[in-house]
Amino acid sequence: LLALLVLAVLVALIWHVTRKPAAPVEAVPAALAEDKPVKPAKGSQPARTEQAPERFEFYDILPNQQVLPTRTPENRPAPRPRPTQTASSQAAPAPTGASADAAAPRWLQVGAFRSAAEADRRRAQVGLLGLPARTQAGSDGQGTALHRVLAGPFNAIDSLEAARRTLAAAGLDAIPLSNPGVEP
């Protein structure tokens, strides 16, 4: 009896949702259709702050940014055989793992939020895990304000991976970055 009642309610709900499609939009309102620049009022000057927070534009940062892949023993490719080296290739040796690790600090992006309060909450969560964290204000290409949370800097990949495991254990996703556009 209860199953029939649930089934009847489910059928009624499906019928109600599918019987009337949403009305299509005929035209874009005139206020949204035209892009008119906003002119500031005469005699008004923008407010100046003592120290402007760091700003970022995704389209400025992304070309200079490299996302580091996660490397685990399960997903490492088999090593490729190396060709024999000639005298010219021996003259300029590639940097070793230790010197490449020390070359550039790495960061973990722990989140990007539209609200500064949400970003501060995430920064506090990361701080409670014992990791250094900071927020960075900026905007996307549409002009929408974004606040991202960065953990770091980490000078060694081992410390970056340890921090990433700590964040994952706390249920926080993190993306490794080599150049997020901030100074350590």
UniProtKB/TrEMBL annotation:
Residues 100-179 form the SPOR domain. Pfam families: SPOR (PF05036). Residues 36-103 are annotated as: Disordered. Residues 83-103 have a biased composition (Low complexity). InterPro entries: SPOR-like_dom (IPR007730), SPOR-like_sf (IPR036680). GO terms for molecular function: peptidoglycan binding. This is SPOR domain-containing protein. Gene3D superfamilies: Sporulation related repeat (3.30.70.1070).
